[in-house]
Design goal:
It is a single chain. By secondary structure, the chain is of the alpha/beta class. The protein has a domain at about 1-190 and about 225-255 and about 295-310: Rossmann fold. It is built from twelve helices and twelve strands. Helix 1 (about 10-25) crosses helix 8 and helix 7 (about 200-205) packs parallel to helix 9 (about 255-270). It is globular and about 65 Å long.
């Protein structure tokens, strides 16, 4: 299969590209704008594959996206390109509106024009998978799980922009018949994760004996999903999912933020001990994020029962693999760390634009 992957130089997108090339034998057309969070070093191991090609383009550029469809004639689209960091959306919402909403519209509209030009089995087999987040559902109480039928209640500029994109994607299915599928995933972690996000930030700050900032009292809960498990889930949805359907992807690994940081500290104490003491001594409580959702948790039953996907990694196995990877791959993260030094974003004193 020839798959057009948007955002393939980002964290999840690069995992998808590597999986499609190395395990599935697919052809991949990686389309990425190469923003601050996108780097071709994340796909360096597949860059020389005859099944891989890269096009630098902005998904809001209709002429560029139309030309890519015409030149590469994909059989499917995995749409992952997005601005994704909640803290950045708080201090500057405009890139999230442009990329996540307008960019998704452009992708859908160009895909529709292209799909309408297909015939026979090529038209019947074409799929467009829109990759989204569990944050569109808002915040859970102490009990319950997000299901595909859970009403949307986004609370941040980021989650609101992704919710809008989800609605556009399904509208293109219901109104125009474009064979669209939507996935909503829980928090991803693993190799090649940009250093601003919680887990890589804690690992790298810990290695440098810098404070490990925990928002509020650290009791906010997330359901953690190893990124390679997510990539396999997306391939499963692409191959076996039903157009017009939504599929939740989660690892069934709920942890408080404090538990996550403590687990990282324990692994760093084991794998990279410091003469200055335990890494847990670096934990520092800071003012909470504005509008910080308390709990996310995914019910992945539909994906598991209907399509047969199962997460392979527990949080314990996945977080160990992640810490070991960062310890071994300073060649990847150090240049990014120099560009983003770990400073906090999303403070309420900064006005959004």
């Amino acid at each position: 299969m020839k798959v057009l992957v948007t955002g393939g130089a980002g964290f999840i997108g690069s995992a998808v590209c590597r999986l499609l090339i190395e395990e599935s034998g697919d052809q991949v057309v990686n389309v990425d704008k190469l923003t601050y969070a996108g780097t071709l070093t994340s796909v360096a191991e597949i860059a020389t594959s005859p099944n891989y090609s890269f096009v630098q383009a902005d998904i809001t550029d209709r002429a560029a996206i139309k030309a890519i469809f015409e030149a590469h004639a994909p059989e499917a689209v995995l749409h992952l390109a997005a601005e994704s960091h909640v803290d950045r959306s708080i201090i500057g919402a405009r890139p999230f509106i442009d990329t996540n909403i307008v960019g998704t519209y452009v992708m859908l509209d160009c895909a529709l024009d292209y799909w309408r030009g297909l015939t026979g089995t090529a038209k019947a087999a074409f799929r467009f998978v829109h990759v989204s987040t569990d944050e569109v559902y808002g915040s859970l109480g102490a009990d319950g799980l997000f299901e595909e039928t859970t009403p949307y209640a986004p609370t941040s500029p980021y989650s609101a922009s992704k919710a809008a994109a989800d609605h556009l994607a399904l509208a293109w299915f219901h109104t125009y018949g474009l064979p669209v599928l939507v996935s909503n995933c829980s928090n991803n972690y693993g190799p090649y994760h940009f250093p601003e996000k919680l887990i890589p930030l804690m690992i790298l700050n810990g290695l440098e004996r810098r404070p490990l900032p925990v928002y509020g009292d650290g009791t906010n809960i997330r359901d953690w999903l190893y990124v390679e498990d997510h990539a396999r889930a997306l391939r499963t949805v692409l191959e076996a999912g039903r157009p017009g359907e939504k599929y939740n992807v989660g690892g069934r690994n709920e942890r408080t933020n404090l538990q996550v940081v403590q687990a990282i500290c324990g692994l760093l104490d084991e794998l990279a001990p410091s003469a200055e003491g335990s890494h847990s001594d670096l934990i520092t409580y800071v003012a909470d994020r504005p509008g910080h959702d308390h709990r996310y948790a995914i019910d992945a039953t539909k994906l598991e029962n209907e399509l047969g996907w199962k997460a392979r990694e527990t949080f314990e196995t996945g977080i160990r693999k992640t810490v070991e990877w960062y310890l071994a791959r300073s060649d990847w993260w150090r240049p990014l760390r120099e560009a983003y030094d770990g400073r906090r974003l999303g403070l309420p004193t900064v006005k959004a634009s």
